[in-house]
């Protein structure tokens, strides 16, 4: 089956994201991350990580990869499930524009989903390193009879900056060109004190970012919304305490205190936070956390294959008629299966993205 890209959904340092559908007109939609093959090492690495992380309802599903000739260029495509609800950033903005905020119980419910995804990522041996609302996808569950939203599923996405964890070891990264410490990986506004001050990136950086996201859901504003420069923001993250909203329950405040522990060695883990009363109390009315995989967890059939495994395709999106042979076509790049994800990460230049 041949597919076509309908429109661009976004652009990033990795390339572009497009909405795609089969050319036969069927109503199957996917999101496709694309980059020229020569610039696709980071995107290909992300594919390997997503393949290793498959199985969680709170991590975006990747169906596989494709290489096509598009407008005369060899293009690497990563095939992902399409989030019809956009991102958590979009959801927060929607509430802000309507001058309402997400209720605390809903914030806790969303935090439960994010923590479950983070826990899965950490157990699989990875650190996301760039958690923020725009990297979290929204999947609403629609009641077919009434056309109303009955549930919202959040899924972690954008693993292009993720790192492999090393047992009993934190990560400090150095810029090979300048020989200076790269103080943080990811988006500075959600960076933890230890990553900014000492370049340390362990699992705890994802927990700090989660705290920032929870505050943003509650207030509609970022934790560090007032700063004069990048250096000023660096100083605030390293030396000041994040302001915890005053209009929330004491349980919520305590939850945020656990997320914002300055000493990363004492910061609570994802599994510990899943047992916090802020999470336990909010989910008890909906369902018990141990049953989360049974709730609105429909199996997503891989539209590119009859089985539910990773697929490697060629020419799904090709726009020319005379295609090179498969061997010659793929000589300029490598397919990286999940088991090679760790090796892949050593070869990718980590981007210090604002």
From TrEMBL:
A biological process from GO: signal transduction
Output the PROSITE patterns linked to this UniProt entry.
PROTEIN_KINASE_ATP, PROTEIN_KINASE_DOM, PROTEIN_KINASE_ST
Protein name per the record = Mitogen-activated protein kinase kinase kinase NPK1-like
Coiled-coil portions: none
Give every Protein kinase domain span: 3-279
Instruction: Please list the residues that bind ATP.
Output: 33
The family assignment reads: Belongs to the protein kinase superfamily.
- Pfam families the record matches: Pkinase
Q: Which organism is it from?
A: Nicotiana sylvestris (Wood tobacco)
Q: Per UniProt, what is one GO molecular function of this protein?
A: protein serine/threonine kinase activity
UniProt keyword terms in alphabetical order: ATP-binding, Kinase, Nucleotide-binding, Serine/threonine-protein kinase, Transferase
Report the domain of life of the source organism: Eukaryota
């Amino acid at each position: 089956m041949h597919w076509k890209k309908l429109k661009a959904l976004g652009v990033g340092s990795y390339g572009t994201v497009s909405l795609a559908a089969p050319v036969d007109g069927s109503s199957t939609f996917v999101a496709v991350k694309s980059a020229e093959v020569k610039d696709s090492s980071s995107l290909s690495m992300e594919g390997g990580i997503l393949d290793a992380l498959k199985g969680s309802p709170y991590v975006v599903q990747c169906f596989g990869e494709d290489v096509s000739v598009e407008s005369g260029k060899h293009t690497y495509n990563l095939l992902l499930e399409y989030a019809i609800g956009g991102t958590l950033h979009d959801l927060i903005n929607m509430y802000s524009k309507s001058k309402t905020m997400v209720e605390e119980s809903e914030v806790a419910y969303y935090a439960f989903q994010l923590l479950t995804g983070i826990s899965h990522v950490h157990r699989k041996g990875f650190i996301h390193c760039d958690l923020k609302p725009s990297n979290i996808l929204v999947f609403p569950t629609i009641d077919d009879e009434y056309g109303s939203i009955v549930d919202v599923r959040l899924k972690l996405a954008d693993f292009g900056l993720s790192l492999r964890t090393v047992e009993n070891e934190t990560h400090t990264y150095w810029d090979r060109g300048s020989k200076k410490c790269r103080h943080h990986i990811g988006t500075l506004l959600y960076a933890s004190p230890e990553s900014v001050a000492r370049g340390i990136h362990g699992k705890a950086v994802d927990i700090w970012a989660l705290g920032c996201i929870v505050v943003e859901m509650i207030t509609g504003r970022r934790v560090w919304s007032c700063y004069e420069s990048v250096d000023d923001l660096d100083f605030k993250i390293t030396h000041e305490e994040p302001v915890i909203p005053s209009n929330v329950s004491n349980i919520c405040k305590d939850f945020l205190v656990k997320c914002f522990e300055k000493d990363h060695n004492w910061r609570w883990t994802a599994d510990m936070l899943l047992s916090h009363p802020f999470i336990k109390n909010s989910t008890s009315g909906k369902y018990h956390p141990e049953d989360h995989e049974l709730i609105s967890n429909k199996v997503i059939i891989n539209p590119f294959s009859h089985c539910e495994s990773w697929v490697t395709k060629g020419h799904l999106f090709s726009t020319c008629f005379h295609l090179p042979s498969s061997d010659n076509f793929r000589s300029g790049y490598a397919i990286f299966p999940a088991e090679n994800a760790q090796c892949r990460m050593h070869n990718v230049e980590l981007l210090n993205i604002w």
